Fold:
Amino acid sequence: MIRAMRAALALTLLAILAACGGGSTPDAATPPRFLSYDGPKVTQVVVNKSDRMMFLLSDRTVLKAYRIHLGNEPVGTKQFEGDGKTPEGIFFIDRFNPRSAYHLSVGINYPRPQDEARAMAVGRKPGGDIFFHGRGPDGAAAKRANKDDWTAGCIALEDSEIEEIYAMLEKGTQVVINP
Structure:
């Protein structure tokens, strides 16, 4: 009797969760948003803007390579807010955003003091919020329009790729962004 009541209660709770979306599971075509990673530690991220490539390294070994999309004005380093350029130089991972409008995002420590000084010298703000991120709505529109570089200065990847990267990186990981 008690066992039957527990089973009925469990079925009722499952039905309520399913109706509210809490018990839903992704279908086989939808990969999980948060992956786990137990491979070698990523010690550096290298971005080569001219090649549109990002590399995740463990010491000198390339663990993963990705095609990327850049700011809508990809040549040259970011000078100030709104210029559409992706910054160049040495940065560090400083934050993770699981609620990004661009699926998932990983932030770098831009602007650095020298970036702020350069922008202020011309009476402008340096901008900020530079991330590696997924496509989001803007990226989906850019893909339909066959446009390669579409961000405001971030580095964009496919959603499945940012899921891998999000799992592999840690705060403090060095990021080198080359021209």
User: Anything to note?
Assistant: The chain has one domain: 29-178.
